[in-house]
Amino acid sequence: MWNAEVFGRICTRIDQLEPEMVEMQRRLVALPALCPRSGGEGEKARVDYLKGVLEGWGLKVEEFRAPDPEAPCGFRPSLVARLAGRGQKPTLWIMTHLDIVPPGPAELWDSDPFVARVESGRIYGRGTEDNQQEMVASLFAVKALLDLRLTPEADVALMLVADEETGSALGAEWLLANHQLCGRDDLVVVPDAGNTEGTMLEVAEKSIAWVKFTTLGRQTHGSTPHHGNNAHRAGANLLLRLDRVLHEKYAAQDGLFSPPASSTEMVSAEKGMHSPDSNSNHR
What is the tens place of the pLDDT at every residue in 109-153? Predict the structure, then answer.
C-alpha cells in the first residue's frame, strides 16, 4: 500500500510531465478522429500515433479493429495498454474515447480548431476537453508510475475506444461483444465528466435507444384536409403518448444521480413530415 510520501512523489512527477502532456494534446488535435459519417476517416491516425508512444514507454499494447466499410482503412481501431501490477487482484480499467465531434461553423472559432493553442493556462482545439484531457491524464498517470519505477497492487489497463460520439457500436460495444477483456470483478472508471474542482465521480451516464416509427397518411390539398389522412398528426399523437407512458413508467427518483429522475426524451424527427397540402406523401 502506498503512503502519503509515495503519493506526493507521483503528484510531483505528474506536474513535471506537463510539457509532454501539452505536446500530446497538440499532436492529437492535429489528428482529428472524426466518424466517417461525419466526414472523417475514423481513429486510425490517432491510434498509430498513440500505439507508438505507449509501446515506447514499455507498455503492452493491443489493437482491436472493428470492421467498418465506411472508413478508408476498412476498420475502426481501439487500443488497450496494460501496466502489470503485483498480484492477481481485479484489473483497474480506465476507459476513454478517441473520437471527436465535428468542429461546427468555422466562423465561431477564434483559431483553427485542429491546431491547438495554449492561452492563459488553457488548451483550445477540437477534442481537447472531450475526451482528450481525460485520456492524456490517464496515460500520463501511468507514465508517472513507470518513471518512478512504482508497481501498482493491481493491473492497470487503459482502454482507448473508437466510436463513442456516434453510439459506441464500433467501439466499446463491439469490444464487449467480441473480446473477453473485462472480468466480472474488475473495476472500471470512465472519466468522461467532472467539475472544475475534480471532485465529482459520475456513477452512471445517459444512454441512447434508437427506435424508428413511420407514420403513413393519404395526400390531399390543404383546403380539403377531410379528404386525406394527416400522417403528421398521427406522429404527434404517438409522440405525446410515448412521452406520457415513458415518464409514468420511469418515475423513480434517486438522489445519487443528477438529475435524480429519468431524463428520457424523444429528440429527433426525420425530414419528410409534411403538411396536408404537400406534393409528397405523408411519412
Answer: 999 999 999 999 999 999 999 999 999 999 999 999 999 999 999
- Residue in the block written with cell 482502454: 159
Distance (Å, rounded) from C-alpha 125 to C-alpha 138? 19
Q: Quick one: the chain helix, strand, coil %, rounded to 5?
A: 35, 15, 50
Could you tell me if 160 and 78 are in contact, meaning their C-beta atoms sit under 8 angstroms apart?
yes
Closest CA to 112 of 103, 122, 102: 103
Q: Write out pLDDT tens, residues 75-105.
A: 999 999 999 999 878 999 999 999 999 999 9
Q: What is the pLDDT of residues 190-232, one digit of tens each?
A: 988 877 787 777 777 677 777 888 889 999 998 999 999 999 8
How far, CA to CA in Å, does 282 sit from each of 25, 251, 271? 49, 34, 11
* HSE-CB of 162 using CA atoms within 13 angstroms: 29
Dig out the grid coordinates for 57 from the structure.
514507454
Q: Which regions of the chain does DSSP assign to beta strands (E)?
A: 60-67, 75-83, 92-97, 117-119, 122-124, 156-161, 187-189
Q: Compute and round to an integer the Cα radius of gyration of the chain.
A: 24
Type of residue numbered 168: S
Residue keyed to cell 502506498: 2
CB 256 within 8 A of CB 241: no
Q: What's residue 270's pLDDT? A: 67
How confident is the model over 232-263, as pLDDT tens digits?
Answer: 899 999 999 999 999 999 999 998 777 888 88
**Could you list the active site residues?**
99, 164
Sequence spans of domains, the chain? 4-189, 207-283
CATH topology of domain 4-189: Aminopeptidase (3.40.630)
Measured torsion, CA atoms of residues 19, 25, 27, 29, in degrees rounded to the nearest 10: -150
